[in-house]
User: Which sequence fits this backbone?
């Protein structure tokens, strides 16, 4: 984990290309912008080439996929691979919907993905391990989260973030855990989508995906924790507004004093 | 009306599948989540079967329909009928746009819909009665709102919610009216869409659609009224944030002391 | 510039039809509603005719275009031209993505557009002048913004708004500049999209597009400036909420005391 990457990111203002979930796309765009990145969204495969050229990194989100969008994901992903631009995959609901699982497996077979970010139900499904996913939620399961994340990372030769109350980050060998956060993340739809796109922004800052992924998790989790301390009750929409504000204000020094990472 | 359904809903955390309006989808997802339901959105007909299987209820919103989406609505609706899962229809702008009216009529001919939720202009159009709808707004008309709602309910053998300053709920025979609310609902785009999806969430809690529909109307209207009392001026965006917060905090006891229902 | 147009707009409550960017569509709808207009969004070409009939004006946004949507834009634009309804074009990212530039040029060749609203990078690209656009952002360039806007306006025989820290408005001959505003507009994704749709709302109030365009720029810039004065730090999401609130509250008298326009 390296909080200097936050300073680098803000100086660099990388363009993050998002093949987005239309439910959460506004939050993702504003979160990226607040953090210090430059979001761009695209829905048309004919502009894929130019979009990948101007982008620093790409985030592919399966949240509201269509056949048309899946084709675009494949083309954008391959172009990003060819250009050496990092790719993040957010496999929304692959643990609950077999069609989405097949789409994710097909994408992972035809592309190299640098980071997969999902909840326990999604990562367990991709790892081929047992879990009870529930819709877009993690669901309930018993199992060693570190083992699940590691199995998934080894299977697809990439970094994996299994996010939740504790975020587990692994490249298959190295393991980090971020214990910061707040239950309000689960109460706001799209916290995971936002994290996936913030990870993409951090991937633009350096060569070590494992470091970048951890730092993204820490910055978001710590920002949320700081914001939640100011709220007198469980207010998920006020939290979402304050969280995006905080992403533009949070400093490495502020995070250092409170981080719980192992 | 039965406020215990709110407690049941929160204990049950039902999955509500939304064929959504992309304008208001984030508010709908966050509102469902805040209330205590689990939202999922889908745009691809190939995942219809699995989506309906995991869902407790379905909400179909015509707000930004396309030919592709209409096909998906038909397939999802039929699968929901076969599986005995309740279906809510939100016929956005059918009073103003003849194409949408035909789409709604076709859907209502090929599916059984459990609850239709619309404004006066939309419900009057489906009832075959005169009204001056205006775009997405109710518009101005003269007519007995109870008669309009009842005619629509009898025509399609379902519950109807004609929402507005007073919400009229009817199954064609029984009638309820919710007088709670605030003019701020009209100032925030998507209040109706949110109500439709909250109704879908309440349908998962029991067998009496008329009771569930009334309770959904009351919970939203009372939450909005409570929130509006805290605002010193007409602030539609602050209202929207506070409303979603309130959906996660509001209790049956709080609503009981203020409800105006007949 | 004529602030009485704000009063006219609120009395008239014009319907603005938006072919929208799905990233920013909720803000645009709520901003139009708060200002006093009535937003409607459409994604299906088969309802184009009825949509244009009920609309006062049309705003076409290229932000998340698809081939299907481009066809719809062409049909809606032509119908609006035939019916004498004003059309606004928001050429998102045409300075950065050659495909979007070709789409914008094709639309401008087959339609008459009344107002083009873009940032410096977008307007320079359409004017055929040099500029370094960056994704959806204006990017960095050297050049006389007034000359760029004027060249674009003369090329397409329309009004042009080149928006940024200073908004330049021109019909090719007359020039106005609005110096109000706040850097927070650049920190919130979709400020430009909102302006484009507010311009469309103001076009419904009279016959002089140049006057209407200026007034829209001033109302938004002044509202943002007033809101920013209340914020103790750079909070882009709180700003967005307060801005939409302010659009429903701001008065001509309030703006008159602070306007910086030449």
Assistant:
């Amino acid at each position: 984990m390296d909080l200097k990457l936050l300073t680098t990111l803000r100086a660099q203002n990388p363009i993050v290309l998002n093949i987005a979930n239309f439910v959460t796309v506004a939050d993702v765009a504003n979160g990226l912008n607040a953090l210090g990145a430059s979001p761009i969204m695209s829905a048309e495969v004919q502009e894929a080439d130019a979009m990948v050229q101007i982008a620093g990194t790409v985030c592919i989100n399966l949240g509201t996929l269509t056949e048309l969008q899946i084709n675009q994901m494949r083309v954008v992903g391959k172009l990003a691979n060819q250009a050496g631009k990092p790719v993040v995959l957010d496999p929304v609901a692959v643990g609950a919907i077999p069609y989405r699982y097949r789409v994710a497996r097909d994408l992972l077979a035809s592309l190299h993905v640098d980071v997969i970010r999902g909840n326990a139900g999604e990562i367990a499904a991709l790892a081929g391990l047992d879990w009870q996913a529930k819709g877009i939620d993690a669901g309930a399961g018993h199992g060693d989260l570190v083992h699940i994340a590691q199995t998934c990372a080894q299977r697809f030769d990439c970094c994996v973030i299994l996010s939740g109350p504790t975020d587990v980050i692994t490249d298959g060998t190295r393991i980090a855990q971020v214990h910061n956060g707040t239950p309000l993340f689960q109460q706001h739809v799209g916290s995971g989508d936002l994290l996936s796109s913030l990870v993409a922004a951090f991937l633009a800052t350096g060569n070590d995906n494992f470091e970048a992924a951890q730092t993204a998790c820490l910055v978001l989790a710590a920002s949320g924790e700081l914001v939640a301390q100011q709220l007198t009750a469980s207010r998920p929409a006020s939290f979402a507004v304050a969280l995006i504000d905080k992403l533009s204000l949070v400093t490495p020094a502020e995070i250092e004093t409170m981080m719980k990472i192992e």
